[in-house]
Amino acid sequence: MPRTSRLRSYRRLFAPAGTLAFTLGNLLARLPMGMFTVSAVIMIAGVRGSYALAGAVTACGLACTALVAPMTARLVDRYGQARIALPATTVAVLGSVSLILCVRYGAQDWTLFASYAVTATTPNTGGMSRARWAYLFPDDPDARHTANSLEQALDELCFMLGPILAAALCTGLSPYAGTLTGCVLLLTGMALFTAQRRTEPPPVRDDGAVHGRAPLRLPGVPPLLGTFLATGAVFGSVEVVTVAYADGQGHKSAAGAVLACQAAGSAAAGLAFGALRLRGSLERRLLCCAGSMAALMALPLLASVASVASAGGNLTVLAGALLIAGMATAPTMVTGMTLLQHRVPRARLNEGMTLAVTALLGGIAAGSAAGGWAVERVGAHGWAYAVPASAALLAALVTASANPRGDSGSSLMQRTVAPGESEGSLPYAPSESR
Fold first, then answer.
1. Percent of the chain, pLDDT > 90?
2. Which domains does the chain have, with CATH numbers?
Protein backbone atom coordinates (compact mmCIF):
# COMPACT_ATOMS: atom_id res chain seq x y z
CA MET A 1 0.00 0.00 0.00
CA PRO A 2 1.45 3.45 -0.94
CA ARG A 3 2.57 5.63 1.94
CA THR A 4 -0.01 8.32 1.09
CA SER A 5 -2.81 5.76 1.33
CA ARG A 6 -1.57 4.61 4.73
CA LEU A 7 -1.42 8.17 6.03
CA ARG A 8 -4.90 8.85 4.64
CA SER A 9 -6.22 5.87 6.62
CA TYR A 10 -5.17 7.56 9.84
CA ARG A 11 -5.98 11.14 8.84
CA ARG A 12 -9.61 10.27 8.21
CA LEU A 13 -9.96 9.14 11.83
CA PHE A 14 -9.47 12.73 12.98
CA ALA A 15 -11.99 14.34 10.66
CA PRO A 16 -14.77 14.39 13.33
CA ALA A 17 -14.46 17.31 15.73
CA GLY A 18 -12.93 16.47 19.09
CA THR A 19 -11.14 13.28 18.03
CA LEU A 20 -7.64 14.76 18.17
CA ALA A 21 -8.29 16.28 21.60
CA PHE A 22 -9.62 13.07 23.13
CA THR A 23 -6.72 11.11 21.63
CA LEU A 24 -4.19 13.50 23.19
CA GLY A 25 -6.00 13.32 26.53
CA ASN A 26 -6.14 9.54 26.28
CA LEU A 27 -2.37 9.43 25.59
CA LEU A 28 -1.57 11.59 28.62
CA ALA A 29 -3.85 9.51 30.86
CA ARG A 30 -2.51 6.21 29.52
CA LEU A 31 1.21 6.97 29.88
CA PRO A 32 1.14 6.59 33.70
CA MET A 33 -0.11 3.02 33.31
CA GLY A 34 3.46 2.12 32.36
CA MET A 35 4.87 4.23 35.18
CA PHE A 36 3.01 3.43 38.39
CA THR A 37 4.22 -0.12 39.03
CA VAL A 38 7.88 0.67 38.34
CA SER A 39 7.63 3.87 40.38
CA ALA A 40 6.04 2.06 43.32
CA VAL A 41 8.67 -0.69 43.32
CA ILE A 42 11.58 1.77 43.21
CA MET A 43 9.99 4.03 45.83
CA ILE A 44 9.08 1.31 48.34
CA ALA A 45 12.26 -0.72 47.85
CA GLY A 46 14.44 2.37 48.03
CA VAL A 47 12.87 3.91 51.13
CA ARG A 48 11.82 0.75 53.00
CA GLY A 49 14.69 -1.41 51.78
CA SER A 50 12.54 -4.41 50.81
CA TYR A 51 11.85 -5.66 47.30
CA ALA A 52 9.62 -8.34 48.85
CA LEU A 53 7.37 -5.66 50.34
CA ALA A 54 7.39 -3.67 47.10
CA GLY A 55 6.42 -6.75 45.09
CA ALA A 56 3.67 -7.71 47.51
CA VAL A 57 2.17 -4.21 47.45
CA THR A 58 2.10 -4.02 43.65
CA ALA A 59 0.69 -7.56 43.43
CA CYS A 60 -2.08 -6.52 45.81
CA GLY A 61 -2.86 -3.57 43.54
CA LEU A 62 -3.01 -5.86 40.52
CA ALA A 63 -5.42 -8.21 42.28
CA CYS A 64 -7.66 -5.33 43.34
CA THR A 65 -7.64 -3.96 39.79
CA ALA A 66 -8.81 -7.31 38.46
CA LEU A 67 -11.80 -7.11 40.83
CA VAL A 68 -12.65 -3.41 40.66
CA ALA A 69 -11.95 -2.52 37.00
CA PRO A 70 -14.94 -4.43 35.52
CA MET A 71 -17.26 -2.77 38.05
CA THR A 72 -15.90 0.68 37.18
CA ALA A 73 -16.36 -0.11 33.49
CA ARG A 74 -19.94 -1.21 34.12
CA LEU A 75 -20.67 2.14 35.73
CA VAL A 76 -19.06 3.94 32.78
CA ASP A 77 -21.31 2.08 30.34
CA ARG A 78 -24.38 2.80 32.46
CA TYR A 79 -23.86 6.44 33.40
CA GLY A 80 -21.39 7.78 30.84
CA GLN A 81 -17.65 8.34 30.67
CA ALA A 82 -17.54 11.94 31.91
CA ARG A 83 -19.81 11.27 34.87
CA ILE A 84 -17.82 8.27 36.18
CA ALA A 85 -14.27 8.36 34.82
CA LEU A 86 -13.09 11.67 36.26
CA PRO A 87 -14.33 11.03 39.83
CA ALA A 88 -12.92 7.48 39.71
CA THR A 89 -9.58 8.88 38.54
CA THR A 90 -9.58 11.41 41.37
CA VAL A 91 -10.06 8.61 43.91
CA ALA A 92 -7.19 6.65 42.34
CA VAL A 93 -4.89 9.69 42.46
CA LEU A 94 -5.71 10.17 46.13
CA GLY A 95 -4.69 6.55 46.70
CA SER A 96 -1.32 7.21 45.05
CA VAL A 97 -0.79 10.37 47.11
CA SER A 98 -1.65 8.39 50.24
CA LEU A 99 0.94 5.76 49.25
CA ILE A 100 3.62 8.44 48.92
CA LEU A 101 2.79 9.90 52.33
CA CYS A 102 2.73 6.49 54.01
CA VAL A 103 6.11 5.58 52.54
CA ARG A 104 7.60 8.99 53.28
CA TYR A 105 6.53 9.13 56.92
CA GLY A 106 7.12 5.50 57.84
CA ALA A 107 3.53 4.35 58.29
CA GLN A 108 2.85 0.70 59.02
CA ASP A 109 3.12 -1.73 56.12
CA TRP A 110 -0.61 -2.41 55.96
CA THR A 111 -1.22 1.24 55.01
CA LEU A 112 0.83 0.74 51.84
CA PHE A 113 -1.41 -2.15 50.80
CA ALA A 114 -4.56 -0.16 51.59
CA SER A 115 -3.36 2.93 49.72
CA TYR A 116 -2.28 1.06 46.61
CA ALA A 117 -5.54 -0.91 46.58
CA VAL A 118 -7.46 2.37 46.21
CA THR A 119 -5.69 3.05 42.89
CA ALA A 120 -7.68 0.14 41.41
CA THR A 121 -10.49 2.60 40.63
CA THR A 122 -8.44 3.97 37.69
CA PRO A 123 -10.69 3.67 34.61
CA ASN A 124 -9.61 1.72 31.54
CA THR A 125 -8.73 4.67 29.31
CA GLY A 126 -7.90 2.49 26.32
CA GLY A 127 -11.28 0.77 26.51
CA MET A 128 -13.13 4.09 26.72
CA SER A 129 -11.18 5.40 23.73
CA ARG A 130 -11.97 2.31 21.66
CA ALA A 131 -15.64 2.71 22.59
CA ARG A 132 -15.54 6.26 21.22
CA TRP A 133 -14.14 5.11 17.89
CA ALA A 134 -16.85 2.44 17.66
CA TYR A 135 -19.48 5.11 18.34
CA LEU A 136 -18.03 7.55 15.78
CA PHE A 137 -17.68 4.97 12.97
CA PRO A 138 -20.60 2.55 13.44
CA ASP A 139 -20.83 1.63 9.75
CA ASP A 140 -17.17 1.78 8.73
CA PRO A 141 -15.26 -1.43 9.61
CA ASP A 142 -12.10 -0.18 7.88
CA ALA A 143 -11.99 2.94 10.06
CA ARG A 144 -12.59 0.88 13.18
CA HIS A 145 -9.79 -1.50 12.22
CA THR A 146 -7.42 1.46 11.78
CA ALA A 147 -8.58 3.00 15.07
CA ASN A 148 -8.01 -0.23 16.99
CA SER A 149 -4.54 -0.47 15.46
CA LEU A 150 -3.79 3.11 16.52
CA GLU A 151 -4.93 2.36 20.06
CA GLN A 152 -2.70 -0.73 20.24
CA ALA A 153 0.27 1.28 18.98
CA LEU A 154 -0.39 3.87 21.70
CA ASP A 155 -0.50 1.06 24.27
CA GLU A 156 2.89 -0.16 23.13
CA LEU A 157 4.31 3.37 23.14
CA CYS A 158 3.15 4.00 26.69
CA PHE A 159 4.47 0.72 28.02
CA MET A 160 7.75 1.38 26.22
CA LEU A 161 8.26 4.95 27.48
CA GLY A 162 6.49 4.71 30.86
CA PRO A 163 9.00 2.49 32.69
CA ILE A 164 11.95 4.46 31.28
CA LEU A 165 10.43 7.78 32.39
CA ALA A 166 9.54 6.36 35.82
CA ALA A 167 13.03 4.99 36.42
CA ALA A 168 14.65 8.25 35.32
CA LEU A 169 12.46 10.35 37.61
CA CYS A 170 12.77 8.06 40.63
CA THR A 171 16.53 7.69 40.38
CA GLY A 172 17.39 11.16 39.07
CA LEU A 173 15.10 13.39 41.14
CA SER A 174 13.38 11.66 44.04
CA PRO A 175 11.94 8.23 44.89
CA TYR A 176 8.52 9.91 44.89
CA ALA A 177 8.90 11.81 41.59
CA GLY A 178 7.69 8.98 39.34
CA THR A 179 4.43 8.46 41.22
CA LEU A 180 3.77 12.22 41.54
CA THR A 181 4.37 12.81 37.83
CA GLY A 182 2.11 9.88 36.97
CA CYS A 183 -0.66 11.37 39.10
CA VAL A 184 -0.42 14.75 37.34
CA LEU A 185 -0.43 13.16 33.89
CA LEU A 186 -3.33 10.85 34.72
CA LEU A 187 -5.57 13.56 36.16
CA THR A 188 -4.74 16.09 33.42
CA GLY A 189 -5.21 13.59 30.63
CA MET A 190 -8.50 12.27 32.01
CA ALA A 191 -9.85 15.82 32.42
CA LEU A 192 -9.00 16.58 28.78
CA PHE A 193 -10.39 13.24 27.61
CA THR A 194 -13.74 13.52 29.40
CA ALA A 195 -14.15 17.16 28.35
CA GLN A 196 -14.71 16.04 24.75
CA ARG A 197 -18.42 15.40 25.13
CA ARG A 198 -19.24 15.40 21.41
CA THR A 199 -17.33 12.16 20.87
CA GLU A 200 -18.60 10.40 24.01
CA PRO A 201 -20.92 7.43 23.48
CA PRO A 202 -24.30 8.04 25.11
CA PRO A 203 -24.92 5.95 28.24
CA VAL A 204 -27.41 3.11 27.99
CA ARG A 205 -29.64 3.05 31.05
CA ASP A 206 -29.92 -0.24 32.88
CA ASP A 207 -33.57 -1.23 32.53
CA GLY A 208 -32.78 -4.91 33.02
CA ALA A 209 -33.61 -5.75 29.41
CA VAL A 210 -31.16 -3.58 27.51
CA HIS A 211 -27.98 -4.71 29.27
CA GLY A 212 -28.79 -8.41 29.21
CA ARG A 213 -26.20 -10.93 30.31
CA ALA A 214 -22.78 -9.99 31.61
CA PRO A 215 -20.07 -10.12 28.90
CA LEU A 216 -18.33 -12.99 30.69
CA ARG A 217 -21.41 -15.16 30.07
CA LEU A 218 -21.80 -14.34 26.38
CA PRO A 219 -21.00 -17.04 23.79
CA GLY A 220 -17.53 -16.67 22.34
CA VAL A 221 -16.23 -14.25 24.98
CA PRO A 222 -14.53 -16.69 27.43
CA PRO A 223 -12.30 -18.22 24.69
CA LEU A 224 -11.24 -14.73 23.65
CA LEU A 225 -10.35 -13.93 27.25
CA GLY A 226 -8.29 -17.13 27.28
CA THR A 227 -6.35 -15.83 24.28
CA PHE A 228 -5.75 -12.51 26.04
CA LEU A 229 -4.67 -14.34 29.20
CA ALA A 230 -2.05 -16.37 27.31
CA THR A 231 -0.90 -13.28 25.40
CA GLY A 232 -0.43 -11.45 28.70
CA ALA A 233 1.74 -14.35 29.87
CA VAL A 234 3.96 -13.71 26.85
CA PHE A 235 4.45 -10.08 27.90
CA GLY A 236 5.07 -10.84 31.58
CA SER A 237 7.52 -13.68 31.01
CA VAL A 238 9.51 -11.82 28.33
CA GLU A 239 10.06 -8.90 30.71
CA VAL A 240 11.36 -11.01 33.60
CA VAL A 241 13.47 -13.35 31.46
CA THR A 242 15.02 -10.47 29.52
CA VAL A 243 16.03 -8.62 32.69
CA ALA A 244 17.57 -11.82 34.07
CA TYR A 245 19.35 -12.57 30.77
CA ALA A 246 20.83 -9.06 30.56
CA ASP A 247 21.90 -9.26 34.20
CA GLY A 248 23.55 -12.61 33.52
CA GLN A 249 25.59 -11.00 30.74
CA GLY A 250 26.63 -8.17 33.06
CA HIS A 251 24.46 -5.56 31.33
CA LYS A 252 21.36 -5.25 33.51
CA SER A 253 21.09 -1.52 32.74
CA ALA A 254 20.55 -2.40 29.06
CA ALA A 255 17.49 -4.57 29.76
CA GLY A 256 15.10 -1.64 29.30
CA ALA A 257 16.50 -0.83 25.87
CA VAL A 258 16.29 -4.49 24.81
CA LEU A 259 12.66 -4.71 25.96
CA ALA A 260 11.92 -1.44 24.14
CA CYS A 261 12.85 -3.22 20.90
CA GLN A 262 9.97 -5.63 21.34
CA ALA A 263 7.56 -2.78 22.06
CA ALA A 264 8.89 -0.82 19.08
CA GLY A 265 8.40 -3.79 16.77
CA SER A 266 4.87 -4.25 18.04
CA ALA A 267 4.01 -0.55 17.71
CA ALA A 268 5.36 -0.35 14.15
CA ALA A 269 3.52 -3.51 13.14
CA GLY A 270 0.33 -2.21 14.73
CA LEU A 271 0.44 1.03 12.74
CA ALA A 272 1.17 -0.82 9.49
CA PHE A 273 -1.56 -3.38 10.24
CA GLY A 274 -4.07 -0.57 10.74
CA ALA A 275 -3.46 0.76 7.24
CA LEU A 276 -4.23 -2.59 5.60
CA ARG A 277 -7.60 -3.42 4.09
CA LEU A 278 -8.06 -7.06 5.07
CA ARG A 279 -10.55 -9.63 3.83
CA GLY A 280 -11.98 -12.72 5.44
CA SER A 281 -13.54 -13.35 8.81
CA LEU A 282 -12.13 -11.94 12.03
CA GLU A 283 -11.99 -15.46 13.52
CA ARG A 284 -9.71 -16.69 10.76
CA ARG A 285 -7.62 -13.54 10.99
CA LEU A 286 -7.15 -13.97 14.74
CA LEU A 287 -6.06 -17.58 14.24
CA CYS A 288 -3.45 -16.47 11.67
CA CYS A 289 -2.17 -13.70 13.95
CA ALA A 290 -1.94 -15.98 17.00
CA GLY A 291 -0.18 -18.63 14.92
CA SER A 292 2.31 -16.04 13.68
CA MET A 293 2.94 -14.90 17.24
CA ALA A 294 3.65 -18.49 18.29
CA ALA A 295 6.12 -18.93 15.42
CA LEU A 296 7.94 -15.62 15.94
CA MET A 297 8.22 -15.99 19.72
CA ALA A 298 10.53 -18.94 19.08
CA LEU A 299 13.11 -16.47 17.72
CA PRO A 300 14.24 -15.05 21.11
CA LEU A 301 14.68 -18.60 22.41
CA LEU A 302 16.78 -19.63 19.41
CA ALA A 303 18.75 -16.37 19.34
CA SER A 304 19.59 -16.37 23.05
CA VAL A 305 20.57 -20.03 23.22
CA ALA A 306 22.66 -19.83 20.03
CA SER A 307 24.29 -16.59 21.17
CA VAL A 308 25.29 -18.02 24.54
CA ALA A 309 26.65 -21.18 22.92
CA SER A 310 28.74 -19.33 20.34
CA ALA A 311 29.81 -16.06 21.96
CA GLY A 312 28.81 -16.19 25.61
CA GLY A 313 25.75 -14.00 25.05
CA ASN A 314 24.99 -11.07 22.73
CA LEU A 315 22.27 -8.56 23.62
CA THR A 316 22.28 -7.10 20.11
CA VAL A 317 21.23 -10.42 18.61
CA LEU A 318 18.53 -10.83 21.26
CA ALA A 319 17.26 -7.27 20.67
CA GLY A 320 16.88 -8.02 16.95
CA ALA A 321 14.99 -11.23 17.69
CA LEU A 322 12.65 -9.43 20.09
CA LEU A 323 12.08 -6.67 17.55
CA ILE A 324 10.88 -9.22 14.99
CA ALA A 325 8.95 -11.29 17.55
CA GLY A 326 7.08 -8.19 18.71
CA MET A 327 5.66 -7.64 15.24
CA ALA A 328 3.02 -10.34 15.74
CA THR A 329 1.69 -9.23 19.12
CA ALA A 330 -0.01 -6.00 18.02
CA PRO A 331 -1.98 -7.62 15.14
CA THR A 332 -3.11 -10.34 17.55
CA MET A 333 -4.26 -7.76 20.11
CA VAL A 334 -5.94 -5.56 17.50
CA THR A 335 -7.88 -8.45 15.96
CA GLY A 336 -8.82 -9.86 19.36
CA MET A 337 -10.17 -6.49 20.54
CA THR A 338 -12.12 -6.03 17.31
CA LEU A 339 -13.66 -9.49 17.61
CA LEU A 340 -14.54 -8.80 21.25
CA GLN A 341 -16.33 -5.63 20.15
CA HIS A 342 -18.38 -7.77 17.78
CA ARG A 343 -19.45 -10.15 20.52
CA VAL A 344 -20.35 -7.68 23.28
CA PRO A 345 -23.46 -5.46 23.02
CA ARG A 346 -22.86 -1.71 22.92
CA ALA A 347 -24.53 -1.30 26.30
CA ARG A 348 -21.68 -3.24 27.97
CA LEU A 349 -18.85 -2.59 25.53
CA ASN A 350 -16.49 -0.86 27.95
CA GLU A 351 -17.08 -3.59 30.53
CA GLY A 352 -16.21 -6.24 27.94
CA MET A 353 -12.97 -4.54 26.93
CA THR A 354 -12.03 -4.05 30.57
CA LEU A 355 -12.42 -7.79 31.08
CA ALA A 356 -9.92 -8.24 28.25
CA VAL A 357 -7.47 -5.91 29.99
CA THR A 358 -8.04 -7.78 33.26
CA ALA A 359 -7.24 -11.05 31.50
CA LEU A 360 -4.07 -9.48 30.12
CA LEU A 361 -3.02 -8.30 33.58
CA GLY A 362 -3.67 -11.75 35.01
CA GLY A 363 -1.58 -13.25 32.23
CA ILE A 364 1.23 -10.78 32.85
CA ALA A 365 1.27 -11.72 36.53
CA ALA A 366 1.29 -15.45 35.74
CA GLY A 367 3.91 -15.01 33.04
CA SER A 368 6.15 -13.02 35.39
CA ALA A 369 5.92 -15.78 38.00
CA ALA A 370 6.57 -18.52 35.43
CA GLY A 371 9.49 -16.59 33.94
CA GLY A 372 11.03 -16.09 37.37
CA TRP A 373 10.61 -19.78 38.17
CA ALA A 374 12.27 -20.74 34.88
CA VAL A 375 15.22 -18.43 35.51
CA GLU A 376 15.71 -19.97 38.95
CA ARG A 377 15.56 -23.50 37.52
CA VAL A 378 17.56 -23.25 34.28
CA GLY A 379 19.55 -20.06 34.85
CA ALA A 380 19.75 -16.87 32.80
CA HIS A 381 21.28 -18.59 29.78
CA GLY A 382 18.52 -18.32 27.22
CA TRP A 383 16.50 -21.49 27.83
CA ALA A 384 14.10 -19.52 30.04
CA TYR A 385 12.75 -17.96 26.82
CA ALA A 386 10.91 -21.26 26.41
CA VAL A 387 8.29 -19.78 28.76
CA PRO A 388 7.13 -16.92 26.47
CA ALA A 389 7.41 -19.25 23.47
CA SER A 390 5.14 -21.76 25.24
CA ALA A 391 2.69 -19.02 26.25
CA ALA A 392 2.44 -17.85 22.63
CA LEU A 393 1.83 -21.43 21.51
CA LEU A 394 -0.89 -21.74 24.15
CA ALA A 395 -2.57 -18.58 22.81
CA ALA A 396 -2.62 -20.10 19.33
CA LEU A 397 -4.01 -23.41 20.61
CA VAL A 398 -6.77 -21.68 22.60
CA THR A 399 -7.72 -19.64 19.53
CA ALA A 400 -7.71 -22.71 17.30
CA SER A 401 -9.81 -24.77 19.71
CA ALA A 402 -12.44 -22.01 19.90
CA ASN A 403 -12.66 -21.71 16.10
CA PRO A 404 -11.34 -24.95 14.59
CA ARG A 405 -12.44 -24.00 11.07
CA GLY A 406 -12.08 -20.21 11.40
CA ASP A 407 -15.85 -19.85 11.03
CA SER A 408 -17.25 -16.39 10.51
CA GLY A 409 -19.37 -16.74 13.60
CA SER A 410 -22.27 -14.65 12.36
CA SER A 411 -24.86 -16.74 14.16
CA LEU A 412 -22.82 -16.57 17.34
CA MET A 413 -22.69 -12.81 17.24
CA GLN A 414 -26.38 -12.54 16.56
CA ARG A 415 -26.98 -14.36 19.85
CA THR A 416 -25.10 -11.65 21.75
CA VAL A 417 -27.71 -9.01 21.00
CA ALA A 418 -29.37 -8.30 24.30
CA PRO A 419 -33.17 -8.28 24.59
CA GLY A 420 -34.55 -4.93 23.58
CA GLU A 421 -31.45 -4.06 21.53
CA SER A 422 -31.39 -4.34 17.76
CA GLU A 423 -28.43 -5.55 15.77
CA GLY A 424 -28.03 -2.03 14.47
CA SER A 425 -27.25 -0.79 17.97
CA LEU A 426 -24.20 -3.03 18.22
CA PRO A 427 -20.94 -1.20 17.67
CA TYR A 428 -20.22 -3.39 14.66
CA ALA A 429 -22.24 -5.25 12.11
CA PRO A 430 -22.67 -8.98 12.83
CA SER A 431 -20.04 -9.95 10.27
CA GLU A 432 -17.02 -8.19 8.84
CA SER A 433 -16.35 -10.72 6.10
CA ARG A 434 -15.97 -8.88 2.82
1. 9
2. 19-152+163-203 (1.20.1250), 209-418 (1.20.1250.20)
